[in-house]
Amino acid sequence: QVQFVESGGGLVQPGGSLRLSCVASGFTRVYTMSWYRQVPGKERELVARINGVTGYTTYADSVQGRFTISRDEGKNTIYLQMSSLKFEDTAVYYCNRVGEDPWGQGTPVTVSS
User: Fold this and answer.
1) What is d(CA 38, CA 44) in angstroms, rounded to the nearest whole number?
2) Sign of the dihedral through C-alpha 56, 86, 72, 36
């Protein structure tokens, strides 16, 4: 059974940084992995993706240059390094492969002064 456990969220001031982690289980191949985020009342949006074959990364325009997605294949873990955080980055962050697996609990990020 595919499962994701996200962690690392919290309260941070604007301009601060956080690193999110996601431990994946239930599959052994290296797949494309993604981070998504969702604000209450809005649709979940794709934030970043890392290709399972090439390692190529893509980002939403709103986070380009501030967020970095990476993976540790040995630990079946992906990370999202977030820097220069803005108020509008406040959301619950989830990881998934390409959005078709069951969703985990997510980890909340609150950017506030």
Assistant:
1) 4
2) negative
Q: Are 104 and 46 in contact (CB under 8 A)?
A: no
Checking if the pLDDT of 74 tops 90, the result is no
pLDDT in tens, 3-62: 999 999 999 999 999 999 999 998 877 899 999 999 999 999 999 999 999 999 999 999
Per DSSP, 103 falls in state P
Q: Using CB atoms within 10 A of its CB, is residue 50 exposed (0-12), middle (13-18) or buried (19+)?
A: buried
Q: Which residues contact 80 (CB under 8 A, 6 or more apart)?
A: 19, 20, 22, 35, 47, 48, 67, 68, 69, 93, 95
Q: What is the pLDDT of residue 28?
A: 77
In this structure, the number of other CB atoms found within 10 A of the CB of residue 20 comes to: 25
